[in-house]
Amino acid sequence: MSAVTQESPEAFRARVRSWLAGTEIPTVPADPDGRFAVLRRWQRTLFDGGWAGLAWSREAGGQALTHAHQLVFDEELVRARAPQPVGLIGLEVVGPSIDRYGTDRQRRELLPRLLSGDDIWCQGFSEPEAGSDLASLRTRAVVDGDDFVVSGQKIWTSWAHEAQWCALLVRTDPAVRKQAGISYLLVDMASPGITTRPIRQMTGDEEFCEVFLDEVRVPRGNLLGGLNDGWAIATHTLGSERSGANLRRRVELEVALDDAVAALRAHGGVGDRARAAVGRAHVAMRVLDAQTRQTAARLVAGVGPTPADSVDKLVLNDVEQTVFAEIAGLLGALRAVPGASPSGLRSGHWAHEHLYSRAASIYGGSAQVQRTIVAQRLLELPRG
């Protein structure tokens, strides 16, 4: 074991703080294109500093540390008010599945560029008729010589218009039960036949996209895992997303709440109404903190994605929506006024975060689906 992997979390925390203190933290612009460019450069800075893929194997281009080290890094990054890298879908969601199920060639060729941000990844799972019911997806892939020929449509595909690669779920055997006939392809987004169309959200952002695939040829060597084994791999991908997001968002929400309290205090706005709202948000945060301690313990022990990840997702949904609803509620009608700053709370920022938090119970698997998983796979309740 190398000296780096033996480093204690406490010593690692000191090293992270020192590096962040000596590194220029980028200012993230409001416009989407500028924001994307800045965050992509920031990911490269993190990669060059040795901070990308901390818990990944060295063979995959990572640092071979533990999830405890990754949690420490996330905490210090957020507390330094530094942004997250742009490629979180690759780093937290798709990358771990490629590392686990990929061939040597796939891992060697794809993962270093994913870590550095040279390649941005998107996740082609949901479809117009198969969002929460992912197993009902209809995008088809037919074997033709050395290629799959793919046709269909995906939706709610974050950053598809900026991505170089897509982790795509396709139906390769329509004759078997729906979970059994799915395969997982790694698709070059520059392939002929792919069209992306951004969707404007109520926040004003456009990172979600529709993706249209018209007889797109994908080399058979880009199949992740075995043919028709995509459902199990997708389960791993979604589990990685839920557990990773739980740990990271806990710190981000904690800092956001601290910032709100500091703004209220600085402007003398801590009246009874504000105290009650902050109190409710604080109680919610303590629930999330307790849940993430269990999540971190599972990850540090090497326990892979499990049905318990659905509990993580449900708790995070509720807490995220509670925190932003309570603080945004203090703005009253002024939340709709750009540039307003009642009690020191910036209306544009808090209104945006409140609106975006409404999606927390949908992305990564809807709350209804997570409750079904908990009922059936954790509580072993009968199927209705």
UniProtKB/TrEMBL annotation:
Keywords: FAD, Flavoprotein, Oxidoreductase
Start and end residues of each Acyl-CoA dehydrogenase/oxidase C-terminal domain: 228-379
Residues forming coiled coils: none
Any one Gene Ontology cellular component term annotated for this protein: plasma membrane
InterPro entries attached to this UniProt entry: Acyl-CoA_Oxase/DH_mid-dom (IPR006091), Acyl-CoA_Oxase/DH_mid-dom_sf (IPR046373), AcylCo_DH-like_C (IPR036250), AcylCo_DH/oxidase_C (IPR009075), AcylCoA_DH/ox_N (IPR013786), AcylCoA_DH/ox_N_sf (IPR037069), AcylCoA_DH/oxidase_NM_dom_sf (IPR009100), Mycobact_Acyl-CoA_DH (IPR052161)
Pfam families: Acyl-CoA_dh_1 (PF00441), Acyl-CoA_dh_M (PF02770), Acyl-CoA_dh_N (PF02771)
SUPFAM superfamilies to which the protein is assigned, alphabetical: Acyl-CoA dehydrogenase C-terminal domain-like, Acyl-CoA dehydrogenase NM domain-like
Transmembrane intervals: none
Molecular function in Gene Ontology: flavin adenine dinucleotide binding; oxidoreductase activity, acting on the CH-CH group of donors
Required cofactor names: FAD
Gene3D superfamilies reported for this sequence: Acyl-CoA dehydrogenase/oxidase, N-terminal domain (1.10.540.10), Butyryl-CoA Dehydrogenase, subunit A, domain 2 (2.40.110.10), Butyryl-CoA Dehydrogenase, subunit A, domain 3 (1.20.140.10)
Residue ranges occupied by any Acyl-CoA oxidase/dehydrogenase middle domain in the UniProt entry: 122-216
Domain Acyl-CoA dehydrogenase/oxidase N-terminal span(s) in chain numbering: 8-118
Keyword Oxidoreductase: yes
Family statement drawn from the similarity comment of this UniProt entry: Belongs to the acyl-CoA dehydrogenase family.
PANTHER family cross-referenced by the UniProt entry: ACYL-COA DEHYDROGENASE, ACYL-COA DEHYDROGENASE FADE29
Record protein name field: Acyl-CoA dehydrogenase
UniProt organism field: Pseudonocardia broussonetiae
